[in-house]
Design brief:
single chain; about 180 residues; mainly beta; Immunoglobulin-like; 6-stranded mixed beta sheet; 4-stranded antiparallel beta sheet; 13 strands; elongated; disordered N terminus
Length: about 180
């Protein structure tokens, strides 16, 4: 009886070791590819409490409507555009912050923050104020661009830097 009690745990350990060795190794999921423009919706809206002294804050959101996960990393390229899609003024400069890769599962979103300096902060001769109809947003870490409709006043002269964008970060949604 005593011998049987000693053999049973040894046999169980040997069987477990054999099963672990014989089991196929779990393969890691392939790394997600950069998000394709065809699978993303890009939209913009005012940031909650986004008014600042001398400007306004907006959120640019990227939503993956594709069937597979994809990645975004870095700063989006952002420019103001008119109704015909013609660029207005200077491209957005990069704000502070660390660049991180964001993995978007299907139906998940990421965001970048855009600060727009009030065109009235600049002398008219150095600004040439003009209404923008939207933002042309070049995807970070990928290719292509999308237009997000949003109206705001900006400077037509490229010497007046009115736009500053942050790096893309995960969108944290409140429960």
């Amino acid at each position: 009886m005593k011998a049987r009690l000693l053999i049973a745990p040894s046999m169980a350990a040997a069987l477990l070791a054999t099963a672990l060795i014989a089991a196929p190794a779990a393969s890691a999921a392939p790394p997600a590819k950069p998000c394709a423009p065809a699978n993303l919706v890009v939209w913009a809206g005012p940031q909650a409490g986004g008014g600042t002294a001398g400007g306004f804050g907006y959120e640019i959101k990227f939503t993956n409507l594709g069937s597979a996960s994809c990645t975004l990393a870095g700063f989006p390229g952002v420019r103001a555009v008119d109704l015909s899609g013609t660029r207005i003024g200077a491209a957005a400069t990069h704000g502070p912050g660390k660049v991180k890769q964001v993995v978007l599962a299907p139906d998940e979103s990421a965001m970048a923050t855009l600060q727009v300096a009030d065109a009235l902060n600049f002398p008219k001769a150095k600004c040439a104020p003009k209404m923008a109809a939207g933002l042309r947003v070049a995807l970070p870490g990928g290719s292509g661009a999308k237009v997000a409709p949003i109206a705001f006043e900006t400077c037509a002269k490229s010497t007046a830097k009115t736009l500053t964008v942050s790096a893309v970060e995960p969108l944290i949604q409140a429960l």
